[in-house]
Amino acid sequence: MMTRNAFLKGFAAAIATGACLATPLAAEEVTLRGVSCFPIGAPPGVPFEEMVSEINEKGKGVVQINLLGGAPAIGSPFQVVERMAQGAYDIAGCPEAFFGNIIPEAPALRLQEVTFAELRENGGIDYFQEIADKKNVKFVGRHHDDGAFNLFLAEGKAIDKADLTGLNLRVSPVYTAFFKALGATVQRSSMPEVYTLMESGAVDGYGWSVRGISPSWIPVTKYRVEPGVYRASIHTVANLNKWNSLSDEARAILNDVVIGMETRMEGTSDYAKQLDEETFKKLAESGIETITLEGEEAEKWVGMARQTAWDEFIEQNPETGPKLKELFTAAD
Prior knowledge:
Keywords: Periplasm, Signal. The protein is of the alpha/beta class. It folds into two domains: about 30-145 and about 230-265, D-Maltodextrin-Binding Protein, domain 2 (3-Layer(aba) Sandwich); about 150-230 and about 270-325, Bacterial extracellular solute-binding protein, family 7 (D-Maltodextrin-Binding Protein, domain 2). It is built from twelve helices and eleven strands.
């Protein structure tokens, strides 16, 4: 027969066991596999690398990102987000130009004419997320704005009007339709090939974001054409299933850092203006001259950029394109 003391000891042990089971275990730190669409250390990719460091500092004990590398070392930049959506990676830093193959509506992110804060208020980001959901992609935010896209030209290839006839230009999907509409012949290449193509004379120029130009390209670049067009936005995207599996605390840390950077980069902010001043000064000191189209030529340049981009976009996205244009552009 069980003694009174034995009963009490057993009862106490049962209570202790129950208490342990009722108390939630501390969540384990989650490590996400991160990748970049740019070579590690390349100017357009540095903001994502800095963002990863900030997340790792604020997310200790909750969420960390292990940055595995960048394209093309890890493969084509055009496959990074696709592979991420399939589960090879968990989070990535990429411009929309590199994930239009998986989300055809991605170019809307570079054609935005209102701030990202407005897009979060007017339903633009929510609608884009509805589209991205179908591809298992979570749009976290725009962590960096590399400025407008400019045309950069080699010595002896200056232009004085909105006409690119006779020029062979290196392109990405961002400005292919635009440059072709103005008469250029075009070819695609990876980022590391730009210097070789320019140095050899295989191309006469290239399109690139003004803040993201590689220092190695400066010796083979003589002119920058203004005005710039579109926005060279670089975004943080994640595998949707992985994102949904994270704790509320982990998602809050990621959102806080990414959207914090998004807000800091808005075009009218003091930080953005300072970046532009530093960039323009550095390019001028490096010997890159500015060609500024004015009057009707400037209007033609900007108008053609906008028209060709949205015409191509709506042709490729007839169901979603008109609504995205309405949400992402300023009222005419």
